[in-house]
Request: fold
Amino acid sequence: MALIKICPSCGYSNPASEMMCQECAAFIADVAPIADDPPGKPGEAPSDGHATGKPRATDAAATIRAASRVSFCDAGGNIAFSAGDGEIIGRHNMGAEYLGPILTVSRRHCRLSQTAEGWKIEDLGSVNGTWINGRRICGPALLTDGDQVGLSQSCVLRAKL
Reply:
């Protein structure tokens, strides 16, 4: 029986040794590991891939939530963090493990929302503003895949929808 950590943000099953969710990059170091007890005979490999970290078929809601997130990638293309509908991005919110040391990013910098038009991002009165593709936004702005999202001059990430 293996120990796993269930990500509170997206529901993904991670190995107990992980500090960040392998699916959404949320900080999970403080999540208590639980026993992964897949159906079947003891010692038998599960047929649903659960031990590999993939959500079980019964975790459909978690899978939908994970797919309903925007990933933000650093200059190297690595996922820095992800956020979902209504979540606030900032040094003390979603992305805190990545944005925390960047003092030019506000504690509550911007908010994501999923609308009928698509994903929108809105600045929350941050000191340095929120920028999309080099243009400062005033009010909710539509995000498209590959947009460069600036949270300050020293923090520019690429949105992956």
